[in-house]
Amino acid sequence: MRHVFKIRKDYYAGGLMILIGLVAAIEGQNYTIGTLRQMGPGFFPVALGVLLIFLGLLIAGTSLGESADGDDSVLPEKLEWRGWFCILAGPALFIIFGKLGGLMPATFACVFISALGDRSTTVKSAAILAAGVTVFGVLLFAYLLKMPMPVLKWGLS
Question: Does the reported pTM lie above 0.90?
Fold first, then answer.
């Protein structure tokens, strides 16, 4: 019974999801929630927050008990600086290219750089993945959902 609350990766992941869910649910209540028939702008954040809290509890619950493989470390043995840099640089590039060039170059840059975070990904496969996601993203967000972001533009105008 002394190993019931062994802290492991799942415990931290569940706790983080619970925290994000709480923030979303609390902040979503600042907007009109509405009903299921006529949803307000706060309905989705509150519903998503409650769902994240539930999933966080499930994930944290898997950390109870003894570790089967004895791996209780939170950080990996070899730190993947390249992967971390690429994953963090992707959204930053989306913001920069989104302001300067529009949805198409922003999506391509974000997916391309993020894909290069995996050491087994080649430049060619990252470019193919980025092109596919860009085509799908532009079709979905610009033409189907009519998001108010230009597909292509030049400069900060």
Answer: no
